Amino acid sequence: MIRTRIAGALAIAALLSGCGGGGAKTSYSVIMTDFSYTPNQIQVPAGEQITLEISNTGAVVHNFIIMKAGSDVGTDFDAADEPNVYWKVEVLPGGNLQTAFAGAAQPGEYLIVCSTAGHYLAGMIGKLIVVGE
Ligand SMILES: [Cu+2]
Predict the structure, then answer these.
(1) What is the mean pLDDT of residues 3-22?
(2) Between 20 and 30 A from 61 (CA), which of 33, 77, 108, 120?
(3) H helices of 1-133, where?
(4) Partners of 32 in the β-ladder
(5) Residue 115 CA, ligand 1 centroid: distance in Å
(6) Are 44 and 129 a contacting pair, CB within 8 Å?
(7) Which residues 6+ apart lie within 8 Å of 65 measured at CB?
(8) How much is the pLDDT for 3?
(9) Is this prediction's pTM over 0.85?
(10) What mean pLDDT do residues 45-53 have?
């Protein structure tokens, strides 16, 4: 009887952990404020459609920008960084929207930044972690 219960618990644990990249999810709620992302790190499975609900509780416009693999923004985000943007969404103060993007097929870490002048410097930085199967 006890043995059966342990086996059952293990089976449930295996179901909850799913397969591949524990902690990776395909949908997130992200809150942007002056000047941070919560959470500031999201983990997604490679090659999946990712849905985001993004709200801006700050006083100014914020962006959620995913930079291309290996791209940095230097000292602050400027026009030279535009070609390295993989995906971008802008949310007005008090705004809230639901959106989706195609998760990168290539596992790795991608920089998330806000392009409003000075926000990167103020620490408005996040990380997208794409994990393989
Ligand atoms: Cu910002």
Answers:
(1) 49
(2) 108
(3) 2-17
(4) 37, 56
(5) 7
(6) yes
(7) 77, 85, 87, 88, 112, 113, 114, 115
(8) 59
(9) no
(10) 95
Q: Please state the rounded mean pLDDT for residues 95-112.
A: 93
State how beta strands 85-91 and 125-131 pair. Answer: unpaired
The rounded Å distance from CA 34 to ligand 1 centre is 6
**Separation of alpha carbons 84 and 99, rounded Å:** 20
Distance in Å, CA 4 to ligand 1 centroid: 53
**80: phi then psi, degrees, rounded to nearest 5:** -65, -20
Supply 49's token pair. 């459609």
Contact 133, 46 (CB under 8 A): yes
Closest CA to 31 of 108, 102, 91: 91
User: How many Å lie between the centroid of ligand 1 and the Cα of residue 96?
Assistant: 14
Whole-angstrom Cα distance, residue 41 to residue 21?
15
How far, in Å, from the CA of 49 to the mean position of ligand 1? 24
Six-digit token string for 56: 């801006």
Number of H helices, E strands in the chain: 1, 9
CB of 111 closer than 8 Å to CB of 127 = yes
Sequence-ordered list of residues with C-beta below 8 angstroms from that of 2, at least 6 positions apart, any chain: none
